[in-house]
Amino acid sequence: MSAPPLVLDLRVVRADGRPFHLWLPLFLLWPLALLLAGLALAVAALMDAAAVATGGRSRHAAALVLGVCGALTAARGTELDIDNEKTTVHLTVY
Amino acid sequence: MSEDRTRILNLLAGGKITADEAERLLDALDAHARAGGAASAAAPAAAPVAGPAISGDPAPLVAALPKYLYVKVDAANGDNVNVKIPIALVRSGLKLTSLIPPQAMDKINDSMSEHGMSVDLNNFKPEDIDELVMALREMEVHVDAQNGDTVRVYCA
User: Fold this and answer.
1) Is A64 within 8 Å of B96 when comparing Cβ atoms?
2) A79: nearest CA in chain B?
């Protein structure tokens, strides 16, 4: 598994306004994200256990939480550029 | 076991390459060995002793594999969209599709078939994902519309 995203850089430039620049240090959110992921995983595991006990159909809640965490982690390196005559948006996940 | 094969398997065991990348390297190694064997059979006296197919560290070969999926849209009216997505993110997203509940999957299939895409996502198995991602690395889509719009989807 690769390292999770460190920084999110968002730049929005409008033709008729001030530019907007957001530099979000995601690494500061890692402890909180870890805590939330742990809680979500615990709840999902309980849901799966309840589904198994009651013979329910869907037993993938924990796998879903892990999959979402994996997808968020893999987002590092994503870049998005949208450019038209009115607005320019540049999003980078480092 | 050859030195090259051991090195590739060590990279796989160390988590530096994925199973797909290891398989691709091993296939390349086998192809090279077959080519070397055919050449030495054709001219056994003159053929030099076959050296390692991958000299040194195979990491540069692994690094040369595409890591990103690019989507570039250049519209004739000046609108441009460039998206760069890590292949790892594509793989993670595809794995998530296999976790969609069956009830929701049926609705997705119905909606897709209504729009002309008769793909049954229920047949989409997690073990197919790596193969799909590997095929995706070699895919390139280039659309030139009559109005001047261009769309390119490729991996690099």
Assistant:
1) yes
2) B84
The model's pTM is 0.66
Average pLDDT over residues B80-96: 88
User: At which residue do the structure tokens 């997705």 appear?
Assistant: B108
Which DSSP letter does residue B2 get? -
Closest Cα of chain B to A73: distance in Å? 8
User: Cβ of B92 and A84 within 8 Å?
Assistant: no
Residue ranges per structural domain of chain A = 7-93
Q: Angle at which helices B87-97 and B126-137 pack, to 10 degrees?
A: 150
Q: Which residues make beta-bridge pairs with A87? A: A14
- CA-to-CA distance for A56 and B150, rounded, in angstroms? 48
Residues B124-140, mean pLDDT to the nearest whole number: 77
Write out the two tokens for A10.
């968002």
A31–chain B nearest CA distance, Å:
22
Determine the distance from the C-alpha atom of residue A67 to the mean position of all C-alpha atoms in its chain, rounded to a whole number.
11
Query: Would you call A13 exposed, middle or buried from its count of C-beta atoms within 10 A (0-12, 13-18, 19+)?
Result: middle
CA distance B53 to chain A (A): 29
Residue A1 is inside which H or E element, if any? none
Q: Which residues make beta-bridge pairs with A21?
A: A11
Distances, alpha carbon B133 to alpha carbons A76, B74, B136, in Å: 18, 25, 5
The residues that bridge with B24 in the sheet, in sequence order, are none
Q: Reduced to 3 states, what is the DSSP secondary structure of residue B16?
A: coil
Backbone angles phi, psi at B51, to 5 degrees: -90, 180
Domain limits, chain B? 3-64, 68-155
- Report pLDDT for B8: 76
